[in-house]
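Full entry
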Amino acid sequence: MFRKFIILTFVFMLMGCIPDLYRDSSGGFTTKKQEIPPPSQNPNEFRAEIKERMQKYGKKTSAKVVSFETNLPYNKLYNNMNTVGLKCLNFILKTDIEEYKYGMKIQKVARYNSYIKKISSNKATLVVQNSYDNMEPAVKKSMPKGGFYHFVIDIEGKGKGLTSVTVYGDSPKRDFGENIFKVFPKWADGSRTSCTKYIK
């Protein structure tokens, strides 16, 4: 009995020496409790958020910016991205999640929607947002209209048949089943018309 008491005392002492772990902005863990910044409320804030996370956390963050040029006139690329947006970036994704505390299977329902907006005669922005069913009230209250920003894609005609594309995004493979940053260039130039494997 005394031996059991000693062992339990040692365990509790050891537990007191282990610091609490908190999720940080990069997706990793830290021993310092951090205030979670509010979600981006518009495309400009989202671009700035992605750049800041890349600068602050480097390879530890899932945030990414990819830029490329295509030998395609602006109007043609705009039409391609508009078609892809309507076909492949407005969908509902249902997944079974392993709930840690009880080991139960619960279903997570994510709703994605996209729109493309012309900024000028040679500039446009494709926006992808998402929301989840059964969100906590505080989380839902902080969500911008249309959902949380997931991707912002800037398209700009450069003349002589060239168009530049800049993709700002987060967690590319988890939600789409493929590295979306590698898919966008193919969608943009029209060499791929199929959606990713999670989107039927």
Observations:
- Residues 1-36 form one domain.
